[in-house]
Amino acid sequence: MDWNSVAASVLSASFVAALSYAYIRIHNARFGSQRQTRLDEIGVLQDTLNKARSDIDTLRKELIEARAQYAGEAKAKDKELLDLKDEHTAVLVEAEGFRKTVDYLTNRVADKDAEIAALRHELQALHAGGTAT
Amino acid sequence: MKATKILLADDNISILAKVGEALRREGYAVTSTNSGADAMCLMSAIPGPDLLILDLLMPGMNGHEVLKSLGPSAPPVIVITGDDVTLEDFVHAKGKVRRVVVKPFDFTDILTAVRDTLGVRLPAGGDDRLPDGGTTS
Question: What residues in chain A have their Cβ under 8 A from chain B's Cβ atoms?
Fold first, then answer.
């Protein structure tokens, strides 16, 4: 092996090493950049996810409160409706009592009218008899 | 003839007053209470009522609890309620519930239920009295 060959081999090896080094540096830089981009994206997604979780918790609390409020309102309305039915019943029963009283008194008045008419008739007959004699 | 005794249990004062008054006009002896617990006490009296008219929704001991507590010697029961229920809903009450009258009802409804439950036994007194309980001259 002569010196020229040795020099050529060394130069060739150095060139390949330099090329490999450069390739690795470039690759690392590129990969590192992509990795950072991905990490940033993951961070953004985690923030979004955390916000979504927080929103869900807030909505869940609001839903529980709304359900409780609705249940309370529905219960109050049910009670109000039952109270109204009670009052309605009391009014119906009382009205029927009034109606019976009115019917009774109407019948009594009719009876008295009939009595008066009969007495008047009798009186007229007596008057007529007295005049005749 | 002794008047038929009716125990009327309802938490609404107007119902107690108006229905009680109307039943008295028909000749029944009516005792009123606005609580289930008092109704149970009054039923344990001797002699007890011939009929119980029972509201379901009452504070404290409600009508359902009264029905569960009724013993074998308890009188027949007419349930009065604003809920949408039927007689079939009371099969657990061992036949004690004879009628269900849903509010709002008029007096004819409850009087018919009372007479049906008591076997058309007419109350003491006649129908020739003034409907408001007054007297005539």
Answer: 81-83, 85-90, 92-97, 100-101, 103-104, 108
